């Protein structure tokens, strides 16, 4: 994997490992708590989904601040403080016995995850990999997907055998043993400048692309925002109810966890393979196709209730959704760099994530409300599929803004 700057790929793989530990198992296990909480506390589906909504809303709420900080403060500092917050959040949640504190704990976890993984990792990867950017972003996202594939089933085993409280504590161990030291040792905002030592803010100012004001006035930015909002509302409304849906369809929790592992496994495959394809054939085209693929996969999962072919439908849906969401989550940050440049990437990406996670926070709650009113997930998942199709239409209208040019190749 050649690139124009020495040290690019060690940084990319380090970012992937951070995502493996901090994002994959945290995001991937949110729905695993629903069934035990419903059983232990008597909370209904919509209520337990509010913990996920708090996680997602908190991610969105801190995203602009995180993006603003990343344009001014070294990424390793922001990420380390946030990773510590994730550890504290899980240790606190493991001691809680009431609803409101649980929502608060998951808000803290969500804020910490946002500031230690997806927002800074995608910015750092975009800054380092100015060639083959979609592939680099795909590798970073694949780390999170692999974390869900490998660690989420382990978490489910711990949850079943030792309870959800003990499982939360064990989830924090690789965070402070591996992820935090790796961030401090390997992660830097962007490659060293040939002009000598400069502040993060000065380095950002030297990059090409639109400044904040013109970017916020551009149609490209708002079409990207619309795509991110609708995509997140549909996907979060789908994925966080899958464990409960599968259990309701007759799957044992361990079997449901294995089926969900296909989603995270093929998210990794889709992120890398379709990221590489997008570098060659165009980001926007692959992004549109991935959103349409998500819509189809959401409808296929409805066959999981079949007595004879339920497992086949469930696995097929997870494979299709994994391939498609891997491309979508990779290409949304890539298309921002292509459409608006890197000068204010951190701030702009933080704003996009804020609005996206607002949509994502609504998704699980709306799906839960639809279930509570109808007694079935059919209409919930059909609503999520419709969101993907609307998102594909918005993505089709994203074009590079006038004045936004590719980042010049930095000197070695």
Description:
- There is one protein chain.
- The protein is an all-alpha fold and 412 residues long.
- 78% of the residues lie in helices and 0% in strands.
- It has one domain (8-190, 201-395): Growth Hormone, Chain: A.
Q: How would you summarize what this structure contains?
A:
It is globular, with a radius of gyration of 20 Å. The chain has 412 residues and is mostly helical.
Helix and strand layout, with pairings?
Layout: H1 8-22, H2 24-28, H3 34-41, H4 45-70, H5 75-93, H6 99-116, H7 118-128, H8 133-162, H9 164-186, H10 200-205, H11 212-216, H12 219-239, H13 242-248, H14 253-281, H15 283-300, H16 310-340, H17 345-374, H18 378-395
Helix pairs in contact: 1-7, 1-8, 1-9, 4-6, 4-17, 5-6, 5-9, 6-7, 7-8, 8-9, 8-14, 8-16, 12-16, 12-17, 12-18, 13-14, 14-15, 14-16, 15-16, 15-18, 17-18
Q: Which architecture would the CATH scheme give at its second level?
A: Up-down Bundle
End-to-end Cα distance, whole Å, is 16 Å
Q: Please identify which CATH superfamily we are dealing with.
A: MFS general substrate transporter like domains
C-alpha-based Rg, rounded = 20 Å
- Mean pLDDT comes to 85
* Percent strand: under 5%
Counting DSSP H or I runs of 4 or more residues, the number of helices is 18
Q: How would you spell out the order of helices and strands?
A: HHHHHHHHHHHHHHHHHH
């Amino acid at each position: 994997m050649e690139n124009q700057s020495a040290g690019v790929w060690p940084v990319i793989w380090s970012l992937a490992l951070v995502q493996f530990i901090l994002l994959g198992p945290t995001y991937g296990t949110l729905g695993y708590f629903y069934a035990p909480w419903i059983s232990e506390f008597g909370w209904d589906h919509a209520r337990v989904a509010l913990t996920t909504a708090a996680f997602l809303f908190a991610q969105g709420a801190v995203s602009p601040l995180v993006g603003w900080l990343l344009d001014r403060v070294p990424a390793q500092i922001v990420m380390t403080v946030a990773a510590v917050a994730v550890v504290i959040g899980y240790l606190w949640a493991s001691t809680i016995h009431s609803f409101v504190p649980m929502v608060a704990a998951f808000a803290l976890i969500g804020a910490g995850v946002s500031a230690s993984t997806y927002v800074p990792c995608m910015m750092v990867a975009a800054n380092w990999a100015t060639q083959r950017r979609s592939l680099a972003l795909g590798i970073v996202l694949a780390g999170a997907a692999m974390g869900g594939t490998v660690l989420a089933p382990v978490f489910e085993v711990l949850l079943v055998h030792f309870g959800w409280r003990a499982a939360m504590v064990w989830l924090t161990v690789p965070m402070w043993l591996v992820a935090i030291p790796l961030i401090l040792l390997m992660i830097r905002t962007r490659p060293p400048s040939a002009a000598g030592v400069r502040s993060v803010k000065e380095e950002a100012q030297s990059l090409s692309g639109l400044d904040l004001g013109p970017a916020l006035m551009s149609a490209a930015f708002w079409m990207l925002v619309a795509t991110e909002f609708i995509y997140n509302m549909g996907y979060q409304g789908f994925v966080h109810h899958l464990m409960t849906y599968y259990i309701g369809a007759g799957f044992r929790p361990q079997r449901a966890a294995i089926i969900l592992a296909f989603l995270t496994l093929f998210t990794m495959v889709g992120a890398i393979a379709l990221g590489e394809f997008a570098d060659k054939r165009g980001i926007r085209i692959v992004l549109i196709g991935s959103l349409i693929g998500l819509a189809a996969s959401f409808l296929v999962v409805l066959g999981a209730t079949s007595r004879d072919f339920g497992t086949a439908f469930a696995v097929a849906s997870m494979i299709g959704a994994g391939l498609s969401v891997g491309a979508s989550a990779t290409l949304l940050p890539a298309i921002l760099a292509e459409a608006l440049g890197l000068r204010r990437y951190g701030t702009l990406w933080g704003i996009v994530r804020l609005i996206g996670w607002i949509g994502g926070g609504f998704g699980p709650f709306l799906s839960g409300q639809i279930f509570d009113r109808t007694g079935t997930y059919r209409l919930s998942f059909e609503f999520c599929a419709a969101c993907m199709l609307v998102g594909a239409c918005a993505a089709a209208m994203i074009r590079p803004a006038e004045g936004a040019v590719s980042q010049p190749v930095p000197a070695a």
